[in-house]
Please model this.
Amino acid sequence: MQITEVETIIVRLPQIEAKCDGTQDALLVKIHTDNGLTGFGEVDSSPEVAKAIFDAPFSHTIASGLRQLLLGEDPRDVERLWEKMYRGTIYFGRRGAAIHALSGADIALWDLLGKATGLPCYQMLGGAYQTRLRAYASDLMPPTPDAAERRAAQMRDAGFTALKFGWGPLGKDEKTDIALVAAARRGFGDENDFMIDIGLCWDAVTAIARCRRLAEYNPYWVEEPLPPDDLVGYGRLADAGTGVRIAAGEEESTCWGFADLIERGKIDVVQADISRAGGLTESRRIAQMAHQRNLLCVPHAFSTGVLLAASAHWAASIPNGGLVEYTVAESPLATGLTGTGLLREPLRAVDGYLSLSDAPGLGIELDEEFIARYRVA
Model:
């Protein structure tokens, strides 16, 4: 079994809005083999940048495009190929966009391995602790308190018992933050879990003061209150003892990066994005590291159904998981509440839970006609 082609496809909505919404475009990865099997992956990054990392020609032994590194290889050698890709891009890679691209390839390799063996990814990753995962609805914070309360109530009525609102108007000032969070909590109910994603905009002093105020609304966690490189600030926030869990990690990649975030940043919830952190191979190592420190590990997944599928398999296979992010953004590229998206059979949360089948690999097939409508030539 050999890899015969590595194909990358950019999909994008006709109109891109100026907001932090990862459901507006994506880079899909297809790895084709000589026996007719194809593995699917996704990169949630800048699609054109990640595509260039795949398509770049060989420059020298530690500076090569991923396609050149993978052609002719046996796709079942997943971990060896991870090391080959990491080493082969180390001159311009090691973190950031190169690891993002590597992640998409790694997801596709795991999908191929599952299709070759007839096993679902969660079983190959070590077995499922659960195949019915609690999904938390994830959306941008609505623009006003009234809108936030209505949207939160809609998610509650849809059966979700966990909800996260983030970015949007959050982080501008204390009065606005408190009003939005209070309204969302009213709409979602005190009995359910509510998370807040601040969007990287506070400093440590503000974060400490604001988390103490927000504690009144019992957030399940406050996510990314500080810029990702402010590990000293994260440490100060942890040491302040606000009584609120701090979650972070979607900008981070590799075990080395997460080790620093965990040890210096002292976060409570480790949020690896499978399509950025290093794929399923590296995310498994990250989860093991978090488990050794008794930390909750929850995937970041705010994009298409391909990333949702990979994230669900990973979350099912780790002992310190149990939650999966489920975007309810109103984008045709996302699964959402309506069941749209670029999969033939979208993964849908039912009564707030996402169930995994025992189909091989990621257990998904792409809707090629749908993709053709949004494909960037």
Notes: The chain has two domains: 3-118, 124-374. The longest helix spans residues 96-117. The two ends are 30 Å apart (CA to CA). DSSP finds 14 helices and twelve strands in the chain.
